Amino acid sequence: MGQYYETCDGSSSSVTINTTNIPLGAEVMEVMVYRKRERRKYSPLTNDNTVFLVTDKIPLAVEISQRSAVNKTAGVFIRGEEIVFKVQLHDPSGYLKTAASVDYIWDFRDGNQLVTHREVTTHTYSTLGTMNVKLVVEAAFPEECPPTSATPTPRRPTSPPLTGTQLRQLGMKKHV
């Protein structure tokens, strides 16, 4: 990754990493902790590293509940009663708050689809069986338009249409 950060926040620190120019995939983050002994002199205390994933996907979790469900932990719900789907996005930096819109596109896989801007939605299944729900989250961010050119495109001079006399001189006939 080749990015280095220094923080001096006492007993706890935090850092936000800009992943704009980092390719998608796994990266290794190494953290080194030093103790300041004197001015410009540090002693290493500890270090650790971990693998993190850079992705263009939005990590999320969906909590599924039903008021009258008997066995929620097993994912067993009652047919014909409303099921609540609550989305929890993983956005520690608050980046998605800058989006012009965040769309939740639900496919309940029973012929019903829904697009909403809310983290919570409900759906009622009328058939029995195992259901697989598909959720796509899309975030739209405003993008500035490129500056317009100050120099106008030069126009080609246009000549007036040829008259009948000019056409005869060129050996052409005028079609009306």
UniProtKB/TrEMBL annotation:
Region span, Disordered: 144-176
InterPro entries (UniProt xref): Ig-like_fold (IPR013783), PKAT (IPR045219), PKD_dom (IPR000601), PKD_dom_sf (IPR035986), PMEL_NMB_N (IPR059017)
CDD domains: PKD
UniProt domain PKD: residue ranges: 98-137
Pfam families: PKD (PF00801), PMEL_NMB_N (PF26141)
Keywords: Glycoprotein, Signal
Family per similarity comment: Belongs to the PMEL/NMB family.
Protein name stated in the entry: PKD domain-containing protein
Organism listed in the record: Goodea atripinnis
